[in-house]
Amino acid sequence: MDATADDWESLDQIQPVVDKWWKPTARLVVAEEIVRLVRAGLFEEMPHQDRGDEELSAAAIISDPMRFWFGMTAKGRKRWEQEGATIDLSD
Asked: Is residue 34 part of a domain?
């Protein structure tokens, strides 16, 4: 979620953040998590005209990552801030 804290991001921007701060993760797993976050109301997809009624899927995100951009919802930001407060970044 951190990758979307300040702007709309595509899979190509989200993937490196996941790999760096969590662990190297398959694109399919990251795309599936993006879909889960959208369905949970924590992410939203940037509106665009070319998708029509096509349902959001991990396969679609992977096949054309620059077509799909995501941002945090207000609900997602609240969760992100709550989770972030529990992380100890001191060494």
From this structure: yes
